[in-house]
TrEMBL record:
The keyword Hydrolase does not apply. This is B12-binding domain-containing protein. Pfam families: B12-binding. GO terms for cellular component: cytosol. Keywords: Iron, Iron-sulfur, Metal-binding, S-adenosyl-L-methionine. Residues 2-147 form the B12-binding domain. One of its GO terms (molecular function) is iron-sulfur cluster binding. InterPro entries: BchE-like (IPR051198), Cobalamin-bd (IPR006158), rSAM (IPR007197).
Length: 223
């Protein structure tokens, strides 16, 4: 069975990355993926930048305990620097491990401009990630799908090359397409039992405004 580890670092001490559970819930609708992939999710509260190096060492070791072939990060402005450090440490230990950067910080235009070329990432996912991540898992299963046909994906053959960016992925017509990670039991009890935990529910994606301080409009021009 293939193993992947999905890593989130929350924006506060009480929150967690719902996006990772959405990825797993959506992927596990597919019987092939349920049969062939073990998707482990690691959630970490907000990390102070002073602790990035030491926390990255611990997180690297925790990830490698699972011996994954694939590691995915959900990137926001408060954690992307940490994931830069963590991905470097992972590649130092295991150069063969494949790393995916996704989340609101991975804007398509920024990828095309080369802003992420120096990152230790093999793949970058922009826009809504559920379908793109599912297609990527199928690709690793040796299916007929080729990388250049996966919408929303950027990829490269080696870290010293720039990303090749595919066409953008069309947004879901409705979030009802994504099974509830709560109702399906995807969200770990250990996360929900944390003291003061904030369990968010997503009701919309995207925005027709362009506020410079906000991430909601990135690759999502409308609601």
């Amino acid at each position: 069975m293939n193993k992947a580890v999905l890593v989130g670092v929350a924006g506060s001490n009480n929150a967690f990355s719902l996006s990772l559970y959405n990825l797993k819930a959506y992927a596990f609708q597919d019987p092939e993926i349920r049969r062939t992939w073990n998707l482990k999710i690691i959630q970490h509260p907000l990390i102070n930048h002073i602790s990035f190096e030491s926390k990255a060492d611990k997180c690297r070791d925790l990830i490698l305990e699972s011996s994954p072939c694939l590691v995915a990060f959900s990137c926001y402005m408060w954690n992307i620097k940490f994931f830069q450090i963590l991905s470097s440490k992972l590649k130092e230990k295991d150069p063969e491990i494949k790393i995916v950067f996704g989340g609101p910080e991975l804007d398509t235009e920024h990828i095309q401009e080369g802003r992420f070329d120096k990152y230790h990432a093999d793949f970058a996912v922009s826009g809504e990630g559920e379908l793109t991540f599912l297609d990527l898992l199928k690709y690793f299963n040796g299916g007929m799908l080729s990388l250049n046909r996966i919408h929303g994906l950027s990829y490269r053959a080696s870290l010293d090359q720039p990303f090749i960016t595919n066409d953008k992925r069309s947004a879901f017509d409705s979030l009802d397409s994504i099974p509830s990670p709560y109702l399906t039991g995807i969200v770990d009890d250990s996360v929900l039992l944390r003291g003061g935990v904030e369990a968010n529910i997503e009701t919309q994606r995207g925005c027709n405004l362009r506020c410079s301080y906000c991430i909601y409009h990135k690759d999502m021009p409308e609601i």
